[in-house]
Design a protein that fits this description.
Blueprint lengths: L2 E6 L3 H12 L4 E7 L3 H10 L4 E3 L2 H6 L5 E4 L7 H9 L4 E4 L6 H11 L7 E4 L6 H12 L5 E9 L11 H18 L3 E7 L15 E7 L4 E7 L7 E8 L3 E4 L6 E4 L2 E4 L5 H4 L1 H17 L8 H17 L6 E2 L11
Helix pairs in contact: 1-2, 4-5, 5-10, 6-7, 7-10
Bound molecules: (2R,3S,4s,5R,6S)-2,3,4,5,6-pentahydroxycyclohexanone (ISE).
């Protein structure tokens, strides 16, 4: 039958996933919404017929209401639900980041290694975006020659007052730390941050945009403009410089409009729409993996840990001149 998913956290992403599982994903239903805010919980339960609200994961487990969980709380709240979910042997799809620090990610991985196989998939949804997949396939094929550089832009229209300087790294560049090494077939070895002129329309406490230089083990150099006060909309794009070609993904591809002596193309305003089909594919493949017993079909906790190490270096790089090295320990055979 359908797997019964408990969605933990009913904020922007949690509510979006509840809707997705209920309306678009096959083989799963939302059986439980675990959310302390009663207003949010009620809205999510109303969107998922047959579901029930719980204030804690432990209550939902005790009520035998869930076969798997999707964690959509902010990163600092992941560890406190990952540990009981693992102890109950539940398959888990955990929104990014796995946890905010390498120490906490290691603790989660130790708990996971008590089980027979990996149970955690991390929600780095960009890997499920069709264009990133095409770019990775192009790198793999060798048809464009050797990959030399990746040049990324990551632009948000604006951010809430609660968004902090370190979140530029841990909440936003976190995606590039996962997906760009995945595209390049390599791993992060160093992170450096440069500061261009500050955008006066950024929240007062933020010094941004920032330029992040990411060194990869295979010699490819990655640069990312991280900009959270771009005003015009939401844009994530990558240019790949090869020895024999240049490729570009993430250009606006919406409505083309000629009006009033001008030409324009529709652009996104939020990651919710920009990556909607990537999120759909990610959740459908996770559900299929849970049903088949594979449990994970995408980035796992080891990938989440590698990103946590890169983020730690990235946060240090915010206050360091020059590159901060990233040392990667050996991968446990559990994650082979
Ligand atoms: C947000 O949490 C996300 O994950 C988005 O993909 C990213 O673009 C945004 O900067 C983050 O705050």
């Amino acid at each position: 039958g359908d797997i019964r998913v408990g969605v933990i956290g009913a904020g922007v992403m949690g509510a979006d996933h509840v809707k997705r599982i209920t309306e678009r994903v096959s083989g799963a239903v939302v059986s439980a919404v675990i959310e302390p805010d009663t207003g949010r919980a009620a809205a999510a339960v109303a969107a998922a017929p047959g579901s029930a609200a719980f204030t804690s994961l432990e209550d939902a487990i005790a009520a035998q209401a869930v076969d798997a969980v999707l964690i959509a709380t902010p990163g600092q709240f992941h560890e406190p639900v990952l540990l009981p979910a693992l102890a109950a042997g539940l398959p888990i799809l955990c929104e990014k980041p796995l946890t905010p620090s390498p120490v906490s990610s290691l603790k989660v991985m130790e708990a996971e290694q008590q089980l027979d196989r990996p149970h955690i998939q991390v929600g780095f949804m960009r890997r499920f975006d069709a264009e990133y997949q095409q770019l990775r396939a192009l790198v793999d094929s060798g048809e464009a020659g050797e990959l030399l550089m990746l040049r990324g832009v990551h632009r948000n229209a604006s951010v809430a007052e609660s968004y902090t300087q370190t979140m530029l790294i841990t909440d936003s560049v976190v995606h590039e730390f996962d997906v760009l090494p995945w595209v390049a077939g390599s791993t992060v070895t160093s992170v450096e941050v440069k500061f261009p002129r500050r955008n006066a329309s950024a929240p007062r406490h933020l010094r941004e945009p920032i330029l992040v230089l990411i060194g990869l083990e295979n010699g490819v150099l990655v640069d990312v403009e991280m900009n959270v006060s771009a005003q015009f909309g939401y844009q994530v794009g990558t240019e790949a410089v090869f020895s024999q070609a240049v490729a570009r993904i993430g250009q606006p591809s919406g409505l083309q409009l000629w009006q009033g002596g001008r030409f324009g193309v529709g652009e996104h305003t939020s990651f919710v729409t920009r990556f909607a089909s990537a999120y759909d594919a990610q959740v459908q493949r996770w559900v299929n993996a849970v049903r088949s017993g594979a449990l994970v079909d995408g980035p796992n906790a080891w990938d989440g840990y590698k990103v946590a190490l890169a983020c730690e270096a990235g946060v240090a790089a915010l206050t360091t001149d020059g590159p901060v090295p990233v040392a990667l320990p050996e991968r446990p055979s559990f994650y082979a």
